[in-house]
Amino acid sequence: MLWENIFRSLKPNQIVDGFTQINFAALRAKGIRHVICDADNTLTYGKWSLSLDNRNHAVKAVAAGWISALVILSNIVLESKRRRLRIANIAERLNGCEYHCAVYPHIKPSKEAFEAVFEKLPPDATYKNTAMIGDQLFTDIIGANNLGMYTIYVRPMAPEAPWMWPKRWAEEIVFALTNWRQNLT
Ligand SMILES: [Mg+2]
Q1: Residue 10 lies in a domain
Q2: For residue 125, how far is its CA from the centre of ligand 1 (angstroms)?
Q3: How far is the CA of 25 from the centre of ligand 1 (A)?
Q4: Does 6 map to a domain?
Q5: DSSP label at residue 40
Q6: Using CB atoms within 10 A of its CB, is residue 64 exposed (0-12), middle (13-18) or buried (19+)?
Q7: Quick one: pLDDT band at residue 181, thresholds 50, 70, 90?
Q8: Distance from Cα 179 to the centre of ligand 1, integer Å
Q9: Alpha carbon of 110 to ligand 1 centroid (Å)
Q10: What is the mean pLDDT of residues 121-149?
Q11: Res. 136: pLDDT tops 90
């Protein structure tokens, strides 16, 4: 069934209320060694402020050896120095982690966006041992699910601009039609 397939590729392996609720030690026990993470509204509140709690949670996971690295994958969509600088600045504050700014047409959820970020992960990274963390079902989650990665949906941190609302309504419809959110971790 078409709908079943669509829902399957939208379903995250985990749904959490916020980035700090992700248990990286437990992920490691599942065999997840690498992490790719969205920036806006996953790590940051809106577009600018990286939450200190999120920053500390990510840095601790790397320091403890639960994950090899956290690498940022952000859709900047249109090429711009300012947009790149913004993501670079977030990466800098995460102890200088690697990042990839995806530009149209190679943006999430396309395979090319993920392939580009894999080049910044250690050589042993595979789709199977890498998790994708993000706040959007239709970019972060579906793209990573289609490649067979482990996916974690994080509730968006901040209210958004009106142009994002239709995407969020579509997500709400998916959540209303499924019981995924009842298994909130
Ligand atoms: Mg986001």
Answers
A1: no
A2: 23
A3: 24
A4: no
A5: B
A6: exposed
A7: confident
A8: 22
A9: 15
A10: 97
A11: yes
Residue 156 CA to ligand 1 center (angstroms) comes to 7
Please give the residue range of the domain that contains residue 109. Answer: 15-183
Structure tokens at 22: 């992700």
Q: Does 35 fall in a domain?
A: yes
Question: How many angstroms does the Cα of residue 42 sit away from the middle of ligand 1?
Answer: 5
> What CATH number does residue 132 fall under?
3.40.50.1000
Strand segments, DSSP code E, in the chain are 14-16, 34-37, 44-45, 49-50, 70-77, 99-103, 130-134, 150-154
100: phi then psi, degrees, rounded to nearest 5: -135, 130
Q: In percent, how much of the chain has pLDDT > 70?
A: 98
**Rounded Cα gap, residues 156 and 90, in angstroms:** 17
Q: How many domains does the chain have?
A: 1
Distance, CA 73 to ligand 1 centroid (Å)?
A: 9
For residue 113, which of 83, 85, 151, 142 has the smallest C-alpha distance? 142
pTM for the whole structure: 0.95
- Dist. CA 110–CA 173, nearest whole Å: 23
State in Å: Cα 157 to ligand 1 middle.
Answer: 9
